[in-house]
Amino acid sequence: MKTTFSVLLFLSVMNVINVQADCHWTFKADSSIYSSPLVLDDVLFTGDLASNFYAINKFNGDVLWKRKLAGSVRSKPTHYQQLIIVNDGSGKVHALNRVTGKIVWQYAMAHEKQVDMWDYYLSSPLVDNAFVYVGGGDGHVYALNADTGLLKWKFETKGVVHASPVIKDERLLIGSFDGCFYAINKHTGEKLWQFKTVGDQYFPIGGIQKGACVGDGKVFFGSRDFNIYALDINTGRGCWNYKERGSWVIATPIVYNNQLLFGTSDTHRFLSMNASNGEINWTLPLNMRVYASAVVYENDVYFGCFNGKVYRANAHTGESELVFQTSASKQNYMNLFRSETEFVDGIELYGNNSKQIERRILDLGAILSTPVVEDRVMYFGDANGYLYALPLN
Length: 393
Known about the structure:
Elements: H1 19-22, E1 25-28, E2 38-40, E3 43-47, E4 52-57, E5 63-68, E6 78-80, E7 83-87, E8 92-97, E9 103-108, E10 126-128, E11 131-135, E12 140-145, E13 151-156, E14 166-168, E15 171-175, E16 180-185, E17 191-196, E18 213-215, E19 218-222, E20 227-232, E21 238-243, E22 254-256, E23 259-263, E24 269-274, E25 280-285, E26 295-297, E27 300-304, E28 309-314, E29 320-325, H2 327-332, H3 354-362, E30 372-374, E31 377-381, E32 386-391
Antiparallel strand pairs: 1-32, 2-3, 3-4, 4-5, 6-7, 7-8, 8-9, 10-11, 11-12, 12-13, 14-15, 15-16, 16-17, 18-19, 19-20, 20-21, 22-23, 23-24, 24-25, 26-27, 27-28, 28-29, 30-31, 31-32
């Protein structure tokens, strides 16, 4: 029997972990961390908005090396042999020596741009069979030689491509701010199929901001037209779509045991859906957006929120608790939130002073970084520039 959870008091029994007492370590970067970390052997790689890229000892948080890049780091790095490959806000893709941080090669896309103040991420590069695939603010998807950085092919869309690519068999799958989702031959750059989002009255283009995931012959992704889509991976035909009325769906969903798990933007909740048909299994009410992806560990799903909190929910039942809150969120929470479902008077997210309100939310230590779990430790960053190593007990 399916159960839908919409209990507004579920937060009252949550266990708040004290970060100073319970984190293995914390590291303070020079600026905000929106990037999801890459953990490789004993080293964690991540970047910040001040264009710094770091190699950090995953056991104690010590910096092994630091490299200044040309632009802000707002995507997850990847690796290829002895190279760490990262995309930055200048429109350059960099390949760094993983031991020294020395730049081995660079590739400059035509240009980079930010669509609006809620366009927080860049496309995360993906390596497959010695090629690097990445999207750019110039509207192209690129395939580069991973050894040399030389261009193999590029594919043009009609909008900014900040979504991250995913590959299944011979298909590269990626969305664009032009409102289209593309399947591209990963070898040649030839378009295999194209799907146009439905659009909405206020967001007719239906831009696709972030990445997709695949499972059971389908590809899943969210859009700014308030929909989450499931397409047949072979044909691009729609299998189902679900409209989250009043909210963009930015977070890249994940598939776990035939569940589609993701957070929403303006309806402020987290959902579990049946990946086969889009029926809702359970929901969790929140008081802020979720843009980062979730991660599943030992049948629990963990996700961060703009309110500076990390939540854990049982993947099957939705039973949940709070496992972490940033220090800044603890100190300033009541200045923004009256309760776990309401703002204090005067807080209007999209009014005339939206930039100031957004800054106050980010100052809570908003979590836009998708967590990574390695050896029972969860690593993630926050908008105040802290990187955390949180043990999962």
